[in-house]
Design goal:
By secondary structure, the chain is mainly beta. Helices cover 12% and strands 40% of the residues.
Length: 213
């Protein structure tokens, strides 16, 4: 009969004796056996960063007169001279906490250009201004003109745009406002404190009287 099984048994007994003879196993990082049972591997995995605080994310404001523009200025909705009216639609925002404590804000805007009695299909521009403010002070403001096309035979043209990487400094993340308006000048309003928003995303329709372009 082969002696290999006996040799194998002797080796196993030797290893087991060495383990039992070792000092009482300490449940500490760096112990191979402890790591296997605790982490599923022979080494300690890297520590995970602490979760970031949820970002305060106020709803999007549209100031009085900022939801619609008429062309030409002064024309009413039924005037024969009205060529077009640009109107805001749904607004959405998303706020993300950064490692340094600041908040990155993304704003989504939808709207449309409606032809008036004197209007004709073609290309139009929707002037938008997105502003972040804190205690009445402008933190960041961006203005852009979004091209809108009303195709032949249609009465209106739709537009949508997403403005990203609007950053609120860490010192202002607990009290700031998000404002969107048609036109190129940020609305100046008294500073006010807004209640904390329940979530970091939202979207809502806009219904504000029109103003002149």
């Amino acid at each position: 009969m082969s002696k290999h099984p006996c040799r194998l048994a002797l080796r196993l007994m030797t290893v087991l004796s060495a383990v039992l003879a070792a000092p009482a196993a300490r449940a500490e990082d760096g112990n191979v056996f402890t790591n296997i049972f605790k982490y599923g591997g022979t080494s300690v995995p890297p520590s995970q960063p602490a979760p970031l605080e949820e970002a305060y994310c106020p709803t999007v404001d549209v100031p009085d007169g900022g939801a619609a523009l008429r062309n030409p200025p002064g024309a009413t909705g039924t005037a024969a001279s009205l060529r077009s009216q640009t109107t805001l639609g749904r607004l959405a925002r998303e706020c993300t906490r950064l490692q340094d404590g600041a908040i990155r804000v993304k704003v989504g805007i939808e709207g449309h250009v409606l032809l008036g009695p004197a209007g004709a299909p073609g290309r139009f521009d929707a002037p938008l201004t997105i502003t972040l403010k804190s205690s009445g002070k402008v933190l960041v403001s961006r203005s852009r003109r979004v091209p809108v096309t009303v195709p032949p035979g249609a009465a209106q043209g739709l537009f949508s745009v997403v403005e990203d990487d609007l950053v609120v400094p860490a010192a202002a993340t607990g009290n700031y406002d998000i404002e969107v308006r048609l036109g190129g000048t940020p609305h100046q309003a008294p500073a006010r404190r807004k209640p904390a928003a329940p979530t970091a995303t939202s979207e809502a329709p806009v219904a504000v009287p029109a103003t002149e372009e």
